[in-house]
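[audit] Reproducing an earlier prediction to check determinism. Same input, same settings, fresh worker. If the tokens differ from the archived copy the diff job will pick it up downstream; this log only records the rerun itself.
[audit] input (125 residues):
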Amino acid sequence: MQLDALNEFAFEDSEPPPRVYGLDGAVVIELHGEIDLLAYHRMAPLLDPITGGPAATVIIDLSGTTFFDCSGISLLVRAHRRTTARDARLAVVCTHPLTLRILRITGLMPMLLPVATLREALATE
């Protein structure tokens, strides 16, 4: 197999890009598929302008994710730091048991306070 073919295979982007939209004054970022190291490098430049921007509330919706590893944790911590540095709020929507387990094991549950729905994320202050 040629090197070009290997590179094309290794960096094939089968996951849809994050969906970003406004909802009741907040900015929602829907992540989909696998949140791994490749996704981190793809998504961080997309999330940085939003998490560092003017929105008072940023919601990261993990409802569409199928895999979440330490790179996903790094992405959430980065987003949290960027929003709280400018006195904004980050909310996380997550119901996936394995992702919630990772958040518990890493001790990030109290910091990120994941909720089950977008409505809960909007209501939480």
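[audit] rerun output stored. Observation attached for the diff report: Residues 104 and 110 are 9 Å apart (CA to CA).
[audit] end
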